[in-house]
Amino acid sequence: MMIQQINLLLAVLLTTVLIFYLTWSSQGKEIRRFVSPAPAQAPANTCFVSINDTRRLSLSSEPMIYFITPSYPRREQVAELTRLGQTLMHVPNLHWIVADDNRMCNPMITQLLPRFGVPFTHISSPMPEIYRSVSVIPRGVANRRAALDWIRANVKSGVLYFGDDDNTFDLKLFEEIRDTNKVSMFPVGLIGEYGVSAPIVKEGKVVGFYDSWPAKRKFPVDMAGFAVNVEYLLKYPNATMPFRAGYEEDRFLRSLGITLDMIEPKADSCTQVLVWHTQTNKKPPPVLKIESSVDSSLRDLLQQVSYMGMASISNSNGSHSEVIVIRLRKKPKLKSQQKNVGVKTYMSKDGKVTAV
After folding, report:
1. Is the pTM of this model over 0.85?
2. Per 3-state DSSP, what percentage of the chain is helix, strand, and coil (rounded to 5)?
């Protein structure tokens, strides 16, 4: 009888230990899901910084907006940066930070950005290789992290905002976010199944969120749906975002220690859409096969297309590129103007001259 009781006690103890172990190990796995590892990666590199503002806009003492744009090489990159740059041209007191997913500084971007007259910083910030093979790539995280590091090292005040290069912005948005005290939020259009993602405001306070993919996030918002005061950011030197697609915004906002009552609703108490999550139909850049040498304007054009990453040129493989050359036939002269060059002409009844 005593032996049976001892065996029962040991079984209970072993079961209890096993339950505690499984609970602890599962919690550890859950924590590791959200805490980003420190993978080996090439460090971010500041390629170029320009403080020149050549737009001739009337400057004021209003806070500077640091507009962070993550980008990556693709054939639409130049087109989308150009479209965005020509929007930012109209925004005073703005510094544009373009963080490119590239190991090397892309000279194309360094040459493109000055065209808009906006003060800018160009950063090369490659994504760690271990994340390029996951099922859902956390694109833009390394870029935004690098931009945050640059702000912490070089900026003391202002407002930061994450704006993708394929999004669309109403100029009124910049007026709205410029006076952000801690963290401001506002609706983003063309998001998910609902067509919009937005904070819900009641009596001037954010009380919840409207989003088609809550996914147990405390702050289910889009990256384009909030702005942060730089002085407030600097109080949280470890605030960052994880390499986990879909949870970047939520974890970044949590790391800033904000609560619902701290959020500043913008865009007329979150009743207006001033930014849209538009997306370009992306295709891989083609390889164009040019078999013969090109001695016309096409040669320089194709070199420019290749430089911009819109296509690559090859004389041995790729899609056959047909060059159509239209040769115009010279207008024949009248018989009285013809020289004796061995070409016979005759005049038809309708008065047209034909060479035979």
Report:
1. no
2. 30, 20, 45
